[in-house]
Amino acid sequence: MKSQDRLGWGLALASTFASGIVTPIARGVVTGGMNPITLVLVRLLIASVLFLGTLLFLDRQKLKLDRQGWLRMIVIGLVGGVEICCFFWSLAFVDASMSAMIKATQPMIVLLMLAAGGERLTCRHWFRLALALVGGYLLLGTSGKVAPFGLFLLALSLLFYAAQLVLTQWWLQAYDSQVATIYVTVLMTVVVAVWWWVQGVEWHQPTANEWWILLLLAVVSTWFARLSLFAAIRRIGSGQIALLWPLQTLTVIGLSVAFLNERLTLVQWIGGTFILVSALLAIERVGGGPMNYSMILRRTPRDG
Predict the structure, then answer these.
(1) How many CB atoms lie within 10 A of CB 34?
(2) To bridge 157 with a disulfide, which of 87, 211, 228, 243 should be the other Cys (CB 3.0-4.6 Å)?
(3) What angle do CA 190, 193, 194 make, to 5 degrees?
(4) Residue 304 belongs to some domain of the structure
(5) DSSP string of 33-70, one letter each residue
(6) Any idea of the CA torsion for 132, 133, 136, 142, to the nearest 10 degrees?
(7) Separation of first and last alpha carbons in the chain
């Protein structure tokens, strides 16, 4: 393996792990009493400052957007802001490990949205969808302690995140991916700030430990994770990195079991395995396919 490939895979794995620690850490902080919207707002504010700082090192010509570009960025930022609020709010009601397994159905939601936009579904696609549905039933239908409101928020998160991915594929192909990520992140921060204000959440000074956690999520899991992702894409390609998506899910589950003492039944583990297999099969071969999922990943930041 070439040194560039080794570096690329190292960066990709680092980005995957950095993104994977978000859900269990956020779940622990939220159940400890911190408002989830406050958590995501402070995280995005810090990350936005860091991203804006990186603009100083980019080609200034890339930063210019036409009116259509701004409108598209604003719509995607609005969708992304609502999505991340729904996801973090859901962590107050749903265990991190179960949340990760449900989010692993994301490729199938994206696939269905692309199909609604004219992409053809094959028999293989329907088989993947069936796996995800059976897995979802085993994971959720056998549990009597999953809060319905938490599942509702997760469902909204799945739909809005899929919409963000699809709109990014359709609208932002002509724009630099790093610049698009920075602009969308800043616009998402504005949306979360408005959500936080409308909710009437009072500001409570985070403790020293909470500040360290917020810095970790902002610096490592947002700024570093996304810059590492782009650096890895340049070296090994986005199709290869797409194969690591289920690894992020396994990272979340492992950390949740180890540090949050979360437990799933055998039937739920089987359901989660079905969902992970479906997610793996939903990622098209390297180089693209009908779904062109690798190109979506190249253009859009991950949830974590």
Answers:
(1) 20
(2) 87
(3) 90
(4) no
(5) T--HHHHHHHHHHHHHHHHHHHGGGS-GGGG---HHHH
(6) -140
(7) 29
Domain count, the chain: 1
- Angle (CA) 215-81-294 rounded to 5° is 90
Residue 29: count of CB within 10 angstroms of its CB: 22
**pLDDT confidence band for 203 (50 / 70 / 90):** confident
Are residues 45 and 186 in contact, defined by beta-carbon separation less than 8 angstroms?
no
H helix intervals, 55-174: 67-90, 96-103, 106-116, 123-136, 148-171
Among the residue ranges 71-80, 187-196, 235-244, 273-282, the one predicted with the least confidence is: 235-244
Q: Across residues 26-41, what is the average pLDDT?
A: 93
- The C-alpha atoms of residue 223 and residue 53 are separated, in whole angstroms, by 11
The answer to whether residue 234 sits within a structural domain is: yes
245 found inside a domain: yes
Residue 160 lies in a domain: yes
- Residue 258: which domain range? 3-299
pTM flag (> 0.85): no
Q: Is the pLDDT of residue 296 over 60?
A: no
Distance separating alpha carbons of residues 271 and 109, to the nearest angstrom: 17
Mean local confidence (pLDDT), 124-129: 74
